[in-house]
Amino acid sequence: MPEHTSDVVVIGAGLIGLATAWQLAADGLQVTLCDPAPATQTSTVAAGMLAPVTEVEYGEDDLLALNLAGVNAWPDFAARLEDATGVPAGLHRTGTLSVAYDVDDAAALRRLAEYQRTLGLEVEVLTGRESRKREPLLANGVSGGVWVPGDHSVDNRQALTALLRAVEVSGVSLIRQRVAQVLTAGTTAIGVQLDDGTAVHAGQVIAATGPWSAQLKGVPDELRAPVRPVKGEVLRLRVPEAYRPALNHTVRATARGFAVYLVPRPGGELVVGATSNELGYDTRVLAGGVFALLRDARTVLPVIDELELMEAIAGLRPATPDNAPILGPSGLDGLLWATGHYRNGVLLTPVTAAILSATVRSGTLPDLGKPFLRSRFGHF
Ligand code: GLY
Protein backbone atom coordinates (compact mmCIF):
# COMPACT_ATOMS: atom_id res chain seq x y z
CA MET A 1 0.00 0.00 0.00
CA PRO A 2 1.54 3.42 -0.98
CA GLU A 3 2.09 5.79 1.92
CA HIS A 4 2.59 9.48 2.72
CA THR A 5 3.47 11.08 6.03
CA SER A 6 2.67 14.52 7.38
CA ASP A 7 2.52 16.29 10.71
CA VAL A 8 -1.22 16.81 10.23
CA VAL A 9 -3.83 15.50 7.82
CA VAL A 10 -6.98 17.60 7.39
CA ILE A 11 -10.09 15.90 5.98
CA GLY A 12 -12.35 18.23 4.00
CA ALA A 13 -11.49 21.29 1.89
CA GLY A 14 -14.41 23.58 2.52
CA LEU A 15 -13.69 26.96 4.09
CA ILE A 16 -12.98 25.43 7.51
CA GLY A 17 -10.62 22.72 6.24
CA LEU A 18 -8.81 25.06 3.84
CA ALA A 19 -8.29 27.77 6.44
CA THR A 20 -7.18 25.26 9.07
CA ALA A 21 -4.69 23.63 6.69
CA TRP A 22 -3.34 27.04 5.67
CA GLN A 23 -3.03 28.23 9.28
CA LEU A 24 -1.16 25.06 10.29
CA ALA A 25 1.21 25.39 7.33
CA ALA A 26 1.75 29.09 8.13
CA ASP A 27 2.59 27.99 11.69
CA GLY A 28 5.33 25.70 10.36
CA LEU A 29 3.65 22.29 10.16
CA GLN A 30 3.70 19.88 7.27
CA VAL A 31 0.06 19.46 6.22
CA THR A 32 -1.87 17.15 3.91
CA LEU A 33 -5.43 18.16 2.96
CA CYS A 34 -7.77 15.55 1.44
CA ASP A 35 -10.97 16.22 -0.50
CA PRO A 36 -12.23 14.74 -3.77
CA ALA A 37 -13.75 18.09 -4.82
CA PRO A 38 -12.28 21.03 -2.86
CA ALA A 39 -14.37 24.17 -2.39
CA THR A 40 -17.51 22.84 -4.04
CA GLN A 41 -20.03 22.11 -1.27
CA THR A 42 -21.76 24.16 1.44
CA SER A 43 -18.97 26.76 1.53
CA THR A 44 -19.71 27.81 -2.02
CA VAL A 45 -23.51 27.91 -1.54
CA ALA A 46 -23.47 30.12 1.58
CA ALA A 47 -24.40 33.79 1.43
CA GLY A 48 -21.40 34.69 3.59
CA MET A 49 -23.00 36.76 6.33
CA LEU A 50 -20.91 37.62 9.39
CA ALA A 51 -23.92 37.95 11.64
CA PRO A 52 -23.20 37.29 15.35
CA VAL A 53 -25.68 39.98 16.42
CA THR A 54 -28.52 39.63 13.91
CA GLU A 55 -28.49 35.81 14.12
CA VAL A 56 -28.24 35.68 17.93
CA GLU A 57 -30.63 33.18 19.50
CA TYR A 58 -32.02 33.36 23.02
CA GLY A 59 -29.79 31.44 25.49
CA GLU A 60 -26.76 30.75 23.23
CA ASP A 61 -24.20 32.78 25.22
CA ASP A 62 -21.10 30.62 24.60
CA LEU A 63 -21.83 30.55 20.90
CA LEU A 64 -22.31 34.33 20.88
CA ALA A 65 -18.83 34.81 22.42
CA LEU A 66 -17.31 32.57 19.75
CA ASN A 67 -19.27 34.29 16.98
CA LEU A 68 -18.15 37.75 18.17
CA ALA A 69 -14.55 36.48 18.18
CA GLY A 70 -15.26 35.28 14.65
CA VAL A 71 -16.36 38.66 13.30
CA ASN A 72 -13.46 40.37 15.08
CA ALA A 73 -10.96 37.91 13.57
CA TRP A 74 -12.05 38.46 9.95
CA PRO A 75 -10.25 41.77 9.14
CA ASP A 76 -6.83 40.45 10.16
CA PHE A 77 -7.51 37.06 8.54
CA ALA A 78 -8.56 38.73 5.28
CA ALA A 79 -5.48 40.99 5.31
CA ARG A 80 -3.16 38.03 5.88
CA LEU A 81 -4.88 36.01 3.18
CA GLU A 82 -4.59 38.86 0.69
CA ASP A 83 -0.91 39.40 1.62
CA ALA A 84 -0.16 35.72 1.15
CA THR A 85 -1.95 35.32 -2.18
CA GLY A 86 -2.62 38.67 -3.84
CA VAL A 87 -6.22 37.45 -4.19
CA PRO A 88 -9.13 39.43 -2.65
CA ALA A 89 -10.50 37.69 0.45
CA GLY A 90 -14.00 39.12 -0.11
CA LEU A 91 -14.57 40.91 3.23
CA HIS A 92 -17.32 43.52 2.80
CA ARG A 93 -17.82 45.76 5.86
CA THR A 94 -21.26 47.24 5.39
CA GLY A 95 -23.21 46.70 8.61
CA THR A 96 -26.62 45.03 8.57
CA LEU A 97 -30.13 46.43 8.60
CA SER A 98 -32.83 44.15 10.03
CA VAL A 99 -36.30 45.18 8.92
CA ALA A 100 -39.84 44.19 9.77
CA TYR A 101 -42.82 44.26 7.46
CA ASP A 102 -46.07 44.06 9.39
CA VAL A 103 -46.90 45.00 12.99
CA ASP A 104 -46.23 41.51 14.37
CA ASP A 105 -42.88 41.38 12.55
CA ALA A 106 -41.98 44.76 14.09
CA ALA A 107 -42.92 43.62 17.60
CA ALA A 108 -40.71 40.52 17.28
CA LEU A 109 -37.82 42.65 15.95
CA ARG A 110 -38.11 45.09 18.87
CA ARG A 111 -38.13 42.21 21.39
CA LEU A 112 -34.98 40.81 19.80
CA ALA A 113 -33.35 44.27 19.89
CA GLU A 114 -34.09 44.51 23.63
CA TYR A 115 -32.45 41.11 24.15
CA GLN A 116 -29.46 42.15 22.02
CA ARG A 117 -29.10 45.25 24.21
CA THR A 118 -29.13 43.21 27.41
CA LEU A 119 -26.19 41.27 25.94
CA GLY A 120 -24.31 44.56 25.43
CA LEU A 121 -24.59 44.36 21.63
CA GLU A 122 -24.70 47.53 19.53
CA VAL A 123 -28.13 47.96 17.94
CA GLU A 124 -30.17 51.03 17.00
CA VAL A 125 -33.97 50.81 16.64
CA LEU A 126 -35.29 52.68 13.56
CA THR A 127 -38.69 53.64 12.21
CA GLY A 128 -39.75 52.50 8.75
CA ARG A 129 -38.86 55.93 7.36
CA GLU A 130 -35.40 55.84 8.97
CA SER A 131 -34.87 52.35 7.53
CA ARG A 132 -35.73 53.63 4.04
CA LYS A 133 -33.23 56.48 4.49
CA ARG A 134 -30.54 53.84 4.80
CA GLU A 135 -32.00 51.69 2.02
CA PRO A 136 -34.11 53.82 -0.34
CA LEU A 137 -35.46 50.89 -2.39
CA LEU A 138 -37.12 49.20 0.60
CA ALA A 139 -40.90 48.83 0.28
CA ASN A 140 -43.11 51.57 1.73
CA GLY A 141 -44.73 48.84 3.83
CA VAL A 142 -41.55 48.24 5.85
CA SER A 143 -42.69 49.29 9.30
CA GLY A 144 -39.48 49.38 11.30
CA GLY A 145 -35.88 48.34 11.49
CA VAL A 146 -32.82 47.76 13.62
CA TRP A 147 -29.41 48.96 12.50
CA VAL A 148 -26.53 46.67 13.47
CA PRO A 149 -23.21 48.30 12.56
CA GLY A 150 -20.99 45.31 13.47
CA ASP A 151 -22.51 42.56 11.27
CA HIS A 152 -20.85 42.32 7.86
CA SER A 153 -20.43 39.85 5.00
CA VAL A 154 -17.81 37.97 3.03
CA ASP A 155 -17.98 36.92 -0.59
CA ASN A 156 -17.41 33.28 0.30
CA ARG A 157 -16.54 32.36 -3.28
CA GLN A 158 -13.74 34.93 -3.31
CA ALA A 159 -12.56 33.64 0.07
CA LEU A 160 -12.50 30.08 -1.29
CA THR A 161 -10.44 31.16 -4.31
CA ALA A 162 -7.99 32.95 -2.04
CA LEU A 163 -7.74 29.99 0.35
CA LEU A 164 -7.14 27.50 -2.47
CA ARG A 165 -4.27 29.73 -3.57
CA ALA A 166 -3.05 30.11 0.02
CA VAL A 167 -2.80 26.36 0.63
CA GLU A 168 -0.92 26.02 -2.65
CA VAL A 169 1.65 28.73 -1.90
CA SER A 170 2.11 27.61 1.70
CA GLY A 171 3.13 24.09 0.67
CA VAL A 172 0.04 22.18 1.82
CA SER A 173 -0.18 18.88 -0.04
CA LEU A 174 -3.73 18.80 -1.49
CA ILE A 175 -4.87 15.28 -2.40
CA ARG A 176 -8.08 15.23 -4.46
CA GLN A 177 -9.44 11.99 -3.06
CA ARG A 178 -12.10 10.92 -0.59
CA VAL A 179 -10.98 9.66 2.79
CA ALA A 180 -12.27 6.09 3.15
CA GLN A 181 -11.49 5.90 6.86
CA VAL A 182 -9.47 7.21 9.75
CA LEU A 183 -6.64 4.77 10.54
CA THR A 184 -6.17 3.82 14.17
CA ALA A 185 -3.63 1.91 16.26
CA GLY A 186 -5.30 0.91 19.51
CA THR A 187 -7.01 4.05 20.78
CA THR A 188 -5.03 6.50 18.67
CA ALA A 189 -5.72 7.93 15.21
CA ILE A 190 -2.56 7.63 13.14
CA GLY A 191 -3.72 8.97 9.76
CA VAL A 192 -6.25 8.26 7.06
CA GLN A 193 -6.76 5.80 4.25
CA LEU A 194 -7.82 7.21 0.88
CA ASP A 195 -10.26 5.63 -1.56
CA ASP A 196 -7.42 4.21 -3.67
CA GLY A 197 -5.93 2.50 -0.61
CA THR A 198 -3.11 5.01 -0.04
CA ALA A 199 -2.35 5.61 3.64
CA VAL A 200 -1.51 9.12 4.84
CA HIS A 201 0.14 8.85 8.25
CA ALA A 202 0.07 11.87 10.55
CA GLY A 203 0.53 12.77 14.20
CA GLN A 204 -2.84 14.56 14.14
CA VAL A 205 -5.96 14.07 12.06
CA ILE A 206 -8.41 16.99 11.82
CA ALA A 207 -11.92 16.21 10.58
CA ALA A 208 -13.40 19.28 8.86
CA THR A 209 -16.05 17.05 7.38
CA GLY A 210 -19.11 19.31 7.73
CA PRO A 211 -22.48 17.63 7.19
CA TRP A 212 -20.78 14.27 6.52
CA SER A 213 -19.04 14.15 9.93
CA ALA A 214 -21.31 11.52 11.48
CA GLN A 215 -20.38 9.06 8.74
CA LEU A 216 -16.62 9.31 9.11
CA LYS A 217 -15.40 5.72 9.20
CA GLY A 218 -12.82 4.62 11.75
CA VAL A 219 -14.32 6.79 14.51
CA PRO A 220 -15.66 4.57 17.32
CA ASP A 221 -19.48 4.65 17.45
CA GLU A 222 -19.62 6.28 20.88
CA LEU A 223 -17.37 9.15 19.69
CA ARG A 224 -19.14 9.96 16.43
CA ALA A 225 -19.96 13.61 15.83
CA PRO A 226 -23.72 14.26 16.16
CA VAL A 227 -23.94 16.35 13.00
CA ARG A 228 -26.92 16.29 10.63
CA PRO A 229 -27.50 18.07 7.31
CA VAL A 230 -29.97 20.98 7.21
CA LYS A 231 -30.68 22.00 3.64
CA GLY A 232 -30.65 25.65 2.61
CA GLU A 233 -31.64 27.00 -0.81
CA VAL A 234 -30.01 30.25 -1.94
CA LEU A 235 -30.53 32.48 -4.99
CA ARG A 236 -28.00 34.68 -6.75
CA LEU A 237 -29.41 37.61 -8.73
CA ARG A 238 -27.76 40.27 -10.85
CA VAL A 239 -28.73 43.91 -10.31
CA PRO A 240 -28.89 45.85 -13.63
CA GLU A 241 -26.77 49.03 -13.75
CA ALA A 242 -29.91 51.20 -13.62
CA TYR A 243 -30.85 49.87 -10.16
CA ARG A 244 -27.38 49.71 -8.57
CA PRO A 245 -26.78 49.49 -5.79
CA ALA A 246 -30.10 47.88 -5.01
CA LEU A 247 -28.87 47.66 -1.42
CA ASN A 248 -25.96 49.26 0.44
CA HIS A 249 -25.97 46.92 3.43
CA THR A 250 -26.92 43.37 4.21
CA VAL A 251 -30.67 43.39 4.85
CA ARG A 252 -32.41 40.79 6.96
CA ALA A 253 -36.16 40.88 6.91
CA THR A 254 -39.14 39.33 8.57
CA ALA A 255 -42.04 39.55 6.16
CA ARG A 256 -45.37 38.29 7.54
CA GLY A 257 -43.51 35.94 9.86
CA PHE A 258 -41.08 34.60 7.23
CA ALA A 259 -37.36 35.32 7.47
CA VAL A 260 -35.24 36.20 4.45
CA TYR A 261 -31.87 37.85 3.98
CA LEU A 262 -30.39 39.82 1.09
CA VAL A 263 -26.63 40.22 0.82
CA PRO A 264 -25.26 42.69 -1.77
CA ARG A 265 -21.85 42.16 -3.37
CA PRO A 266 -19.79 45.09 -4.68
CA GLY A 267 -19.96 43.81 -8.28
CA GLY A 268 -23.76 43.98 -8.51
CA GLU A 269 -24.69 40.49 -7.30
CA LEU A 270 -27.45 40.12 -4.71
CA VAL A 271 -27.57 36.87 -2.74
CA VAL A 272 -30.97 35.92 -1.31
CA GLY A 273 -31.30 33.18 1.31
CA ALA A 274 -32.15 30.86 2.71
CA THR A 275 -34.65 28.10 3.22
CA SER A 276 -34.13 25.61 6.05
CA ASN A 277 -35.30 22.02 5.72
CA GLU A 278 -34.40 18.71 7.33
CA LEU A 279 -34.41 16.45 4.27
CA GLY A 280 -31.23 14.42 4.76
CA TYR A 281 -28.67 14.78 1.97
CA ASP A 282 -31.17 16.08 -0.62
CA THR A 283 -29.68 19.09 -2.44
CA ARG A 284 -32.36 19.50 -5.13
CA VAL A 285 -33.58 23.05 -5.52
CA LEU A 286 -37.36 22.93 -5.20
CA ALA A 287 -39.78 25.35 -6.82
CA GLY A 288 -41.40 25.98 -3.45
CA GLY A 289 -38.09 27.11 -1.98
CA VAL A 290 -37.38 29.50 -4.85
CA PHE A 291 -40.95 30.82 -4.66
CA ALA A 292 -40.75 31.49 -0.92
CA LEU A 293 -37.41 33.31 -1.17
CA LEU A 294 -38.58 35.51 -4.04
CA ARG A 295 -41.96 36.19 -2.40
CA ASP A 296 -40.38 37.33 0.87
CA ALA A 297 -37.51 39.24 -0.76
CA ARG A 298 -39.97 41.04 -3.05
CA THR A 299 -42.24 41.98 -0.14
CA VAL A 300 -39.47 44.12 1.35
CA LEU A 301 -37.57 45.00 -1.85
CA PRO A 302 -39.99 45.30 -4.79
CA VAL A 303 -37.18 45.96 -7.30
CA ILE A 304 -36.42 42.23 -7.06
CA ASP A 305 -38.77 41.93 -10.06
CA GLU A 306 -36.18 43.71 -12.24
CA LEU A 307 -33.18 41.56 -11.28
CA GLU A 308 -31.83 38.70 -13.34
CA LEU A 309 -32.02 35.32 -11.65
CA MET A 310 -28.54 33.86 -12.19
CA GLU A 311 -28.45 30.83 -9.93
CA ALA A 312 -30.55 28.75 -7.56
CA ILE A 313 -28.50 26.35 -5.48
CA ALA A 314 -28.85 24.28 -2.32
CA GLY A 315 -26.31 23.34 0.33
CA LEU A 316 -26.25 21.37 3.56
CA ARG A 317 -25.58 23.16 6.84
CA PRO A 318 -23.77 20.92 9.33
CA ALA A 319 -26.07 21.18 12.36
CA THR A 320 -25.50 19.90 15.90
CA PRO A 321 -28.04 19.36 18.70
CA ASP A 322 -27.23 22.75 20.28
CA ASN A 323 -26.49 24.71 17.05
CA ALA A 324 -22.85 25.22 18.08
CA PRO A 325 -19.75 23.73 16.45
CA ILE A 326 -17.67 20.78 17.62
CA LEU A 327 -14.05 21.81 18.09
CA GLY A 328 -10.91 20.10 19.33
CA PRO A 329 -10.23 16.74 20.99
CA SER A 330 -12.59 13.99 19.92
CA GLY A 331 -11.99 11.42 22.66
CA LEU A 332 -9.87 9.41 20.22
CA ASP A 333 -6.21 10.44 20.68
CA GLY A 334 -4.87 12.10 17.55
CA LEU A 335 -8.30 13.04 16.13
CA LEU A 336 -9.59 16.61 16.40
CA TRP A 337 -12.96 17.87 15.20
CA ALA A 338 -13.50 21.12 13.29
CA THR A 339 -17.12 20.63 12.33
CA GLY A 340 -20.76 21.37 13.09
CA HIS A 341 -20.64 25.08 12.24
CA TYR A 342 -24.30 25.06 11.18
CA ARG A 343 -25.31 28.65 10.25
CA ASN A 344 -21.91 30.16 11.09
CA GLY A 345 -19.31 28.46 8.91
CA VAL A 346 -18.07 31.54 7.06
CA LEU A 347 -18.14 33.63 10.24
CA LEU A 348 -16.17 31.04 12.25
CA THR A 349 -13.57 30.15 9.60
CA PRO A 350 -10.68 32.30 10.93
CA VAL A 351 -11.29 31.58 14.60
CA THR A 352 -11.68 27.83 14.00
CA ALA A 353 -8.40 27.72 12.08
CA ALA A 354 -6.65 29.58 14.90
CA ILE A 355 -8.14 27.35 17.62
CA LEU A 356 -7.22 24.13 15.79
CA SER A 357 -3.68 25.26 15.00
CA ALA A 358 -3.12 26.31 18.63
CA THR A 359 -4.47 22.95 19.80
CA VAL A 360 -2.12 21.00 17.53
CA ARG A 361 0.90 23.09 18.49
CA SER A 362 0.34 23.29 22.25
CA GLY A 363 -1.61 20.09 22.87
CA THR A 364 -4.27 22.19 24.66
CA LEU A 365 -7.58 23.54 23.40
CA PRO A 366 -7.67 27.36 23.92
CA ASP A 367 -10.28 28.59 26.44
CA LEU A 368 -12.46 30.03 23.66
CA GLY A 369 -12.90 26.52 22.24
CA LYS A 370 -13.59 24.71 25.52
CA PRO A 371 -17.41 24.98 25.50
CA PHE A 372 -17.45 23.25 22.11
CA LEU A 373 -15.89 19.86 22.84
CA ARG A 374 -17.56 16.77 21.39
CA SER A 375 -17.82 15.40 24.94
CA ARG A 376 -20.65 17.85 25.84
CA PHE A 377 -23.05 15.56 23.99
CA GLY A 378 -22.07 12.38 25.88
CA HIS A 379 -22.84 9.10 24.13
CA PHE A 380 -25.00 10.10 21.22
N1 GLY B 1 -26.32 31.93 8.30
C1 GLY B 1 -27.25 31.89 7.27
C2 GLY B 1 -27.89 30.59 7.00
O1 GLY B 1 -27.47 29.59 7.55
O2 GLY B 1 -28.81 30.55 6.25
From TrEMBL:
UniProt entry tagged with the keyword Cell cycle: no
Keywords, in A-Z order: Oxidoreductase, Thiamine biosynthesis
GO terms, biological process: thiamine biosynthetic process; thiamine diphosphate biosynthetic process
Sequence ranges assigned to domain FAD dependent oxidoreductase in this UniProt record: 7-357
Gene3D superfamilies: D-Amino Acid Oxidase, subunit A, domain 2 (3.30.9.10), FAD/NAD(P)-binding domain (3.50.50.60)
Listed Pfam families: DAO
Enzyme class name: oxidoreductase
Keyword Metal-binding applies: no
SUPFAM superfamilies: FAD-linked reductases, C-terminal domain (SSF54373), FAD/NAD(P)-binding domain (SSF51905)
Molecular function as annotated in GO: flavin adenine dinucleotide binding; glycine oxidase activity
Reaction(s) catalysed (UniProt annotation): glycine + O2 + H2O = glyoxylate + H2O2 + NH4(+)
EC number(s) on file: 1.4.3.19
Pathway it works in: Cofactor biosynthesis; thiamine diphosphate biosynthesis
Gene Ontology CC terms, in alphabetical order: cytoplasm
PANTHER family, alphabetized: GLYCINE OXIDASE, SARCOSINE DEHYDROGENASE-RELATED
Protein name (database record): glycine oxidase
Biological classification of the source: Bacteria, Bacillati, Actinomycetota, Actinomycetes, Propionibacteriales
